[in-house]
Structures are given as C-alpha cells and as structure tokens.
C-alpha cells in the first residue's frame, strides 16, 4: 500500500478513505509468523523478548511477553500539552496503518484492523502534542495513539471526548491483548512527526496560493508594473519555481484595466518597483521549490517503515536498525518553516507599501479621512508582530539534540517540535496574507472606476463577500478571521 500526497491531503481534510487489500494482509501475516518463528529459536530479540533502550540486555520470560508489550504502551503514554487536532490525528493513524501494512513490523492483522477501525469510525485517540524528541520513534504521542486499542486513554467521537473503553464499545471494537513485538511496533516510528509536518505543508500550500493572489492584487492596487514577470527574465535564470510563479503572476494580472491605464504613462516618475513587488517570482519561486522538496520527502516518509527492529519474512530474519530517527522529517519541517516565514515576510512589506502614501499614491493608511480614521495602520502592526514571531519560530529545530535514555539514544532529531512550530508559522502567515488581501482589496477600490483583472476580480469578490469596503474605522478582527478561513479552505488555489 502506498498513499500519494493528494490521498494524504484528502485524509487530512476528512474526505479520504483507507482500506487494505489481500496483498497487504498477506505481508502482515507473513511478518507476524516470522516473529513467532524467531521467538522459538530462543535468541535474544530486541523489544520482543528483551527490555527496551538501556534495558535491552534484560531478557524477558515467555509468560511475561504480553505484559511487556502492554507495559511498554502504558509507561510511554506520558505526553503533555494540548491535544493534537483531528486532522493531524487522522493522518497519524493513516500513516501508522500504511507503515504496518508493509509487512516489516511483525504485528498481527488484528492490530492493523483495530487502528483502521478507529480511523474509519472517527474514534480518534486523544494525543498530547508535546513529549517527543523525534528519535526512537515518536514514543510518547504514539503510545497515546495506541492506548485506545488496549481500552486505555481517551478518544474523540462525534464531538465528544470519551474514555477509550466506552468509545470502543460504541464502534464495536474489542480491546486487544498485544502479542510479541506489537507494542514496540505501535510506538516506534515517525508517524506523529510526519503527520505534523504534512499538516504544516498542506496549510503552507494554501498560504502560498493566497499569497500569490495577494501579491498580484497589491501590484495592481499600487499601479505597479508586470514587466518584471516577463517570461524571458526567468528563463534566463532557469529556476523552476521562479519560472512557474512568474507565469502565475502574469496570468493573474492579465487583462487588468488598472494595469493598462498606466502602461505608457509619461508622468510616472517610477523606474522600478520595490523588491516586494518586483522580486515576487524570485522569492516566491524559491519558496515553492523548498515546499516541493519538503513534500517529496514527506510523501516518502508517509509510506516508509520506520519502527525497529524490522522483520524480513522473505529471509526469515529480524534486524535492528534506526529508521525511527526522524531527521528527514525534521529537515523537511524546518524547510517549510523557513519558506512560509519568508512568504509572510514579503507580504508584510507589501502591506507597508499599501499604507504609505509616499510610495503608494493611495490615501494614507488606506482611509480618506486620515486622523479622524486610522484605517489600516494597526493591521500593519499586527502583521509585523506575526512576522517577527515567525522569525524566531523559524530557527531550525533540527540543529538541536538532547540525549535521552541514559545516553543510549544519544542523538535525536526534534522533528516533532519542528512539525509543531511549522504549523504555528503557517497559522501566523495565513493571518498576514489575510491582512494583505484586505489591504489590497481596499487599494483596488481606490482605483475605481478602473477594475482589476478578471482573475483577480474573482478573488477580490471573495474577499468582499466576507469584508466590505471600509470608508470609516471599524474593528477588522473578524474580517481578518473570515479571510483567513477562506485561505485555509483553499479558496485562492490556482
């Protein structure tokens, strides 16, 4: 079984489904049989008949193997902080199912079916968001993900938070007694980190699309030129993302009456627009390339086997390794953080242009009665605050490491935190782009009776459907929130 990014996004949004076929179950059963056969050999097998981490040298008797796996789940369920949202939890469940379905984890079919039942029934484990360092697997959060299979912990079902045993009863799922290796397979892996990074990626893609629209609308509102988007400029450099962004900007501005009104203006003293207008293909194109690279890494990771040890049924062997180390995910999440931080940063500069009459040619702070009205003055302050916050959050988590487990796990990835803060940056950026869309729409209104392009007019009308033109001051907090909701609903996707 393999999931594409599009399928993962559907699951994230609550619109996708997941099912296993006969080939998946054949691999699962062959893997479980290999574990059973290996146990009969009497050899020490990490996490199967031994302790964990620094206690790996401790042998466990056969009559304590089930207790070993149950204790593993319960002892590791020590996460703290706010619970992961339902989108991230759905992704984590789905990715864990895909991982186990590869037949490298030594679990029985009943375990995989149990996880699948939680996902398809919408009985989502309550998973605290903090407590993983992103190596030896996302141990604490994955333990919370696994707890409901044992009748422990809590689930969210139908808008309620229930004791897991009650949730299982509602969806008709029996509690599971874990077999050898199964607890370890459930908590070992990068599924939480990957789900968090994918959540950030999907939201970053929505922010990126909205930012292109906002940037093009700002160019028009400011009577900027589209000459820097000429294809020849970008082909001369050859960067793929830059070429794509320039093409999209040309398409967005094409047919604008505002643009045509000043194409050959002899009284315009400007020679070149500021970088935040002119260099959008270069900046946004680089961001697009980074997001696409992160997406490729995360698509691989979502379909990867990342627990330990791994079972190779075709060879009859069980091998210990380190696929649980989430360094690829940490780097991908940090890349997303940096790209989205830059998207918000250049947007804030365009907001600053729009409110500055010395540069914009528009009324000060986008209001006709400045002084009596403050207009968009403080919206820019909000955007500046969020961009500054993002600069701190964008510091890479992947460059940090703190040894754990008595120095057995002496280098870790911090991927879970990298994914969490990438999501925070995406939220901040969505608010910044919402503010730019509001400001750019206000600027376009000041260019009446001239109209913007047909493509931008559609986006302008979406903004105006939730936020009317502001002739005099009013609170725009609700307007920002409504435009942000449009962004997060992919309303500005190209």
From TrEMBL:
Subcellular location: Cytoplasm
Recorded catalytic activity of this chain's protein: L-histidine = trans-urocanate + NH4(+)
Presence of keyword Flavoprotein: no
Pfam hit, one: Lyase_aromatic
Chief place where the protein resides: cytoplasm
Family annotation (PROSITE patterns): PAL_HISTIDASE
Any one GO cellular component localisation term in the record: cytoplasm
Signal peptide: none
Single annotated GO MF: histidine ammonia-lyase activity
The UniProt record lists the keyword Lyase: yes
Key words of the record: Histidine metabolism, Lyase
Gene Ontology annotations of biological process type: L-histidine catabolic process to glutamate and formamide; L-histidine catabolic process to glutamate and formate
Protein name as catalogued: Histidine ammonia-lyase
